């Protein structure tokens, strides 16, 4: 009788030694398989959504912030002098970045020359005034530089007083 009880205890102990590792292997395998399937089928949708939502500049371009400009504007017949304080960021190609940094004086001179010819009413009148100013700055900088280095300009700060 004692032998029968020892045999039952040994068989119960052996069952648990088989069941516990089997459950662990199934749990780990199920987790890995679930993760693989989720990343394969759900991962592509998330990546395409991110690509569609993210805007900005292309990978071959970079944004180059300029120091603030403080320029007196052309007078429009009134006796008071108006000033513009403006901060610009240029969108340039990465291959031209070092040249733009070296020739910053040329770019600043181009911007100042354009802004000095503008009146307050030229900059603030209408919906198209700011986009036209941006385009004129891009055209002038590229002409003075000798090639198309600036593709777009962002105005990050502007005050006219």
Work out the count of structural domains.
2
Instruction: List SSEs in N-to-C order.
Output: HEEEHHHHE
Give the helix tally.
5
Radius of gyration: 34 Å
Helix content: 55-70%
Class by helix and strand content? alpha+beta
- Strand elements, count: 4
**What multimeric state do the chains show?**
single chain
Largest sheet: 4 strands, antiparallel
> What spatial form do the alpha-carbon principal axes imply?
rod-shaped
pLDDT average, as an integer?
Answer: 84
| CATH architecture label name of the largest domain | 2-Layer Sandwich
The parts where pLDDT drops under 50 for at least 5 residues are: 48-54
| Approximate strand percentage | 15-25%
CATH topology descriptor of the largest domain: Tetrahydropterin Synthase, Chain A
Distance between the termini: 106 Å
CATH superfamily of the largest domain: Band 7 domain
CATH class descriptor of the largest domain: Alpha Beta
Layout of helices and strands:
Elements: H1 2-53, E1 61-65, E2 69-72, E3 83-93, H2 97-102, H3 104-116, H4 120-124, H5 129-145, E4 150-160
Helix pairs in contact: 3-5
